[in-house]
Amino acid sequence: MGLQSVAITTATAPHPQSALRVHKLFLATNYILLGAASSCIFLTLSLRLFPSLYGFFLILLHIVTIVAAAFSCASSTSAASHTRWYTFHMVSTVMTAIFEGSVSVLIFTRPADFLQAIKSYVKEEDAEVILKLAGGLCVLIFCLEWVVLGLAFVMRYYAYTADQNGAVTEADMRRSAKVQDSMSDWPWPFQV
Q1: How far apart are CA 16 and CA 24, in angstroms?
Q2: What number is the average pLDDT over the span 9-30?
Q3: From 36, 126, 149, 160, which residue has the greatest number of CB atoms within 10 Å?
Q4: Is-contact 22 151, C-beta < 8 A?
């Protein structure tokens, strides 16, 4: 997924301790995400054992969140770097974060309508408490998804700098030389 080479090459990274800490935080955040999403599934099922269509889509959203987090944890420790899996991870994380945020807003602003759509058979007072718990977990999932995105980006950066190995290539030197050569014919105030 693109995240994976950090775990293997932290010894060659410019900041090996930072890369290792980011990787551990990334895994811990994904594990918390797994727990929160599975808890939301159980809370949704406690409202109605056989969910309605809306309940099914809510459970499906949490299943997609679980699959993305589990895939992210598994692929962050493998050796190969694949840009398409990294892109898939980023897109799926953004989409689930957007939907989790939308669900949490819906839960907190219109709980009665939400319970009616799920067709809950639990008492309304108890169902609202369960729904508020699920809404709180949706907010937590929303925030954690964005943290995971940031950590994945940082891990990708560390993997990129580890691949570069801190060495300046000839292409880098040519690129910087072109900038310096092209500035020599500029007027005096713009020369550096």
Answers
A1: 12
A2: 74
A3: 36
A4: yes
